[in-house]
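Record 1 of the preview.
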Amino acid sequence: MQSQLVYDGSFDGFLTAVFMVYEERLHVVSFTPQTYFQTGFFSERIEVITDLKKAARVWKGLEKFKGFRNEVYWSFLSEIEGNECVLLQAIQYVLKTAHVSDYGHPQLLSTAQVRKMVGREKHRMEAFIRFQLTKDVIYFATIEPDFNVLPLLVKHFKNRYADQQWIIYDVKRNYGLYYDLSSVTPMQMDFAKNSSEKSIFTQDEADYSELWKNYFKSTTIKSRINLKLHIRHVPKRYWKYLNEKSPG
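->
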């Protein structure tokens, strides 16, 4: 019978589940984040309680395979359904053989491919995110990435905006990161509550926004627009982050 491991959806929860597979010698397993749990007719439900010590032991076990360990984490952030089983099999293969570059192994190849997809999304977020200054003197930006890349953006924006307070909020996953000039902490906001309030942004932001849109229009030479090339470099799903693409 298949064991259905129901975990909290976090990376530590996933690593705890991996530990449980080894500890209880489970052979046929599936992973289900708690949010998406549905009882299977032919599976045994096992609730995984996240244990940071157990998660750390799995993470430490992969320490000598740092490149692969990085791929596992980035690939996990893809949130692709069923990817946990791929990662488990890749981890089991590497721990058994130490062959981290054997891309003839389907799970190793898949892990590397998904990691590249997540990496592309990360780099595009770094390029296209636009901050606006709030009345509390905090630079604020919202994102809706295909993958959960927000944890991967910390280093870039902490280095680039080290002297400014900022918040990057993932509205798709309803959480954000707040930098207070010294450290970065997770946070959540109630957008429904804030929607009825006056604009949180300064008047200068609106003025700068209008100036930039006018500048962009005035410097664009319509006869030289190559829309296909432009979309290749700046896909339409990222236009919502760009001031010059907003209506008006």
